[in-house]
């Protein structure tokens, strides 16, 4: 796989509107998770990380230049992309820029209330076109929809797309908003926790959902002016299917283990500062990840989950978590796993319950989802690659 | 980067009107309802896979088209295939199932069902195909306005270039929305001898 360099990113989430705001909130131990009773007219209460009412609309109205009507989902995707593009200092209207959108459900909330939008807005490719067109970009964007692994799959797609000589930059956007549709579905699955989630805890009770968007501008030019020793590089990535069950993980962590093995091939395990896991806090997911980590002989490596801050942000999760893990690495930190007290998983793993320091320069991102998909990404600071 | 010329070993085409294998019409449909048509194909190819009846229509169409293409290859379909990947595109993601699920969460009729909800993700069809044929390589699902031969060829070449251990890719276009069925399922090999079709734009335009 081609090595990619992150030359600008942005997280637009209930924790903050820029990457640095998110890092600040995370450093201070804040969580965006809250209790909601009666939200979305749902009969059952739930915990989730939601944007405050009208926050998206206000932020967008303050920054956006045109009168065209965008949906909530499109707005957060645009806001995250605009931040990343600004940081990268690129002209996103050029033909050398490709937009890649990762989402699971896009504008699905329009099924309940079309709110004056045309029916076409239910199609993910349509939203992606409008997002790219907002920036004046002429290319047909790529839409990745691989359930929960979408955000990581989109970064692998970026590495591949940039082998095409037409492109110099990929703007990878992960975004999902929550709705009655999504929350009721997870409730029907009995997957939601009746309290704040406890990833990897012996007494974990299920997941909390979250909404948000994040974007990374990747380039494969190592001589780009924005690339320096601190630049975070996406070195490798792999996707493997369990071929076992459409909604439950493999008992032997087949697919995730294979994805980690492919990603870590001939890479020194000792240089991995931490593994940022999916860590949804469901019994099966967290056990499965612990088994994969043990099978890959990485049990000594610290493993964290950011779901206690953001909840599970679906198609945005893989992008948000890669950005925050990169920031941790840059500051020689390992984020703690918020909400967890007594680690207890099928295979023993080391989950930092307090923030730790590290001098290592690489991390492994792992993620799994419905449809049996598993992905692993290996990222490192440019100055630390041997 | 190695220049690869992948070959199409076999392909199937499934619409509401026709079932085609490698250019040859196997079955035509004039009067069957979309659901009966899928069940009829299941019987016609003597498939024995009870899980089929639990699936949504997108997965049913994807599985039938895969089975027909796979049968032609005389592959042992129950053997673990860690050198296979799956790569599919469509237009409507899982909107057919989304519409069905939405009906179960209306205010006066609220009974959300996990067995309907699970299919409201576009990539579940690739998961069903992976389970049926024990395909353990990559599964990728992309959504685009229409089938783009250029993009499909690029995606296939990228998987082969990125993953030296992958020799075969099952996939193509798998669309099902509001009784409209449109599937092109291909089995593509990294390289092979013989007279198989080249995976190129000209051929893909003919197939779709």
Overview of this structure, please?
The complex is a heterodimer of chains A (386) and B (208). Chain A has two domains: 4-219, Peroxisomal Thiolase, Chain A, domain 1; 232-384, Peroxisomal Thiolase, Chain A, domain 1, CATH 3.40.47.10. Helices cover 28% and strands 21% of the residues of chain A. Chain A is built from ten helices and 15 strands. In chain A, a hairpin with a 4-residue loop joins β14 (362-368) and β15 (373-381). In chain A, α3 (72-88) crosses α4 and α5 packs across α10. Chain B is an alpha+beta fold. Chain B has helices at 34-44, 57-73, 95-102, 114-117, 124-133, 149-162, 201-207; strands spanning 7-15, 18-21, 24-28, 84-90, 105-106, 109-110, 139-143, 168-177, 180-189, 197-198. In chain B, a hairpin with a 2-residue loop joins β2 and β3 (24-28). The two termini of chain B are 29 Å apart. Chains A and B meet through α4, β5, α5, α6 and β9 of A and α3, α5, β7 and α6 of B. β5 (142-144) of chain A pairs antiparallel with β7 of chain B.
CA distance, first residue to last residue of chain A: 17 Å
Computed Rg of chain A: 19 Å
CATH topology of chain B: Peroxisomal Thiolase, Chain A, domain 1
Q: What is the CA–CA distance across the termini of chain B?
A: 29 Å
Helix content of chain A: 25-40%
Oligomerization status of the protein chains: heterodimer
Structural class assignment of chain B: alpha+beta
The number of helical runs of chain A is: 10
- How many domains in all of chain B? 1
**What's the number of structural domains of chain A?**
2
Q: Looking at the structure, what is the overall shape of chain B? A: globular
Described by the principal axes of the CA atoms, the overall outline of chain A is globular
Strand content of chain A: 15-25%
Please count the beta strands of chain A (DSSP E, at least 2 residues each): 15
Helix content of chain B: 25-40%
CATH fold assignment of the largest domain in chain A: Peroxisomal Thiolase, Chain A, domain 1
CATH H-level superfamily title of chain B? Thiolase/Chalcone synthase
SSE string of chain B: EEEHHEHEEHHEHEEEH
**Over the alpha carbons, how many angstroms does the gyration radius of chain B reach?**
17 Å
Query: How many helices of chain B in DSSP terms?
Result: 7
């Amino acid at each position: 796989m081609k090595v990619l360099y992150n030359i600008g990113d942005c997280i637009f989430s209930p924790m903050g509107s820029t990457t640095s705001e998110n890092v600040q909130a995370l450093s201070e131990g804040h969580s965006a998770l809250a209790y909601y009773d009666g939200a979305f007219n749902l009969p059952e209460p739930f915990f989730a990380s939601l944007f405050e009412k009208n926050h998206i609309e206000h932020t967008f109205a303050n920054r956006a230049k045109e009168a065209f009507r965008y949906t909530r989902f499109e707005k957060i995707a645009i806001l995250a992309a605009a931040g990343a593009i600004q940081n990268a200092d690129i002209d996103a209207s050029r033909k050398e820029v490709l937009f890649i959108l990762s989402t699971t459900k896009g504008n699905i909330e329009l099924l309940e209330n079309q709110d004056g939008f045309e029916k076409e807005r239910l199609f993910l490719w349509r939203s992606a076109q409008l997002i790219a067109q907002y920036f004046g970009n002429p290319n047909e964007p790529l839409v990745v929809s691989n359930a929960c692994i979408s955000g990581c799959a989109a970064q692998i797609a970026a590495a591949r797309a940039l082998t095409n000589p037409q492109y110099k930059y990929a703007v990878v956007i992960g975004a999902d908003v929550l709705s009655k549709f999504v929350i009721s579905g997870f409730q029907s699955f009995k997957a939601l926790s009746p309290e704040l989630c406890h990833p990897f805890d012996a007494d974990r009770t299920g997941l909390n959902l979250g909404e948000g968007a994040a974007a990374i501008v990747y380039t494969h030019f190592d001589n780009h002016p924005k690339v320096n020793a601190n630049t975070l590089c996406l070195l490798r990535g792999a996707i493997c299917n369990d071929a076992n069950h459409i909604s439950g993980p493999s008992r032997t962590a087949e697919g995730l283990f294979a994805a980690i093995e492919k990603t870590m091939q001939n890479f020194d395990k000792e240089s991995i500062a931490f593994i940022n896991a999916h860590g949804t806090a469901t019994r099966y997911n967290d056990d499965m990840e612990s088994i994969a980590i043990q099978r890959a002989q990485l049990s000594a490596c610290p493993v964290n989950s950011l779901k206690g801050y953001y909840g599970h942000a679906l198609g945005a999760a893989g992008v948000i978590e890669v950005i925050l893990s990169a920031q941790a690495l840059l500051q020689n930190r390992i984020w703690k796993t918020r909400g967890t007290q007594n680690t207890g998983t099928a295979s023993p793993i080391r989950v930092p319950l307090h923030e730790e320091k590290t001098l290592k320069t690489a991390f492994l991102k792992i993620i799994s989802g419905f449809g049996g998909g598993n992905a692993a990404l290996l990222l490192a600071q440019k100055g630390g690659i041997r | 980067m190695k220049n690869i010329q992948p070959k199409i070993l076999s392909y199937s085409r499934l619409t509401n009107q026709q079932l085609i294998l490698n250019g040859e019409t196997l079955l035509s449909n004039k009067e069957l309802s979309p659901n009966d048509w899928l069940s009829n194909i299941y019987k016609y190819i003597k498939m024995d896979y009870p899980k089929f009846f639990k699936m949504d229509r997108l997965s049913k169409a994807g599985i039938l088209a895969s089975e027909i293409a796979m049968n032609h290859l005389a592959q042992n379909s129950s053997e673990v295939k860690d050198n296979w990947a799956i790569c599919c595109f469509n237009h409507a993601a899982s909107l057919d199932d989304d519409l069905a699920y939405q009906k179960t969460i209306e205010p006066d009729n609220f009974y959300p069902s996990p067995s309907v909800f699970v299919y409201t993700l576009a990539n579940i069809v690739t998961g069903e195909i992976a389970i049926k044929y024990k395909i353990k390589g990559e599964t990728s699902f992309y959504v685009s306005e229409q089938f783009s031969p250029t993009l499909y060829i690029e995606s296939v070449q990228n998987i082969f270039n990125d993953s030296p251990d992958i020799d075969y890719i099952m996939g193509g276009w798998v669309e099902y929305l509001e009784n409209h069925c449109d599937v092109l399922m291909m089995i593509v090999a990294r390289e092979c001898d013989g007279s198989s079709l080249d995976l190129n734009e000209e051929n893909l335009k003919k197939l779709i």
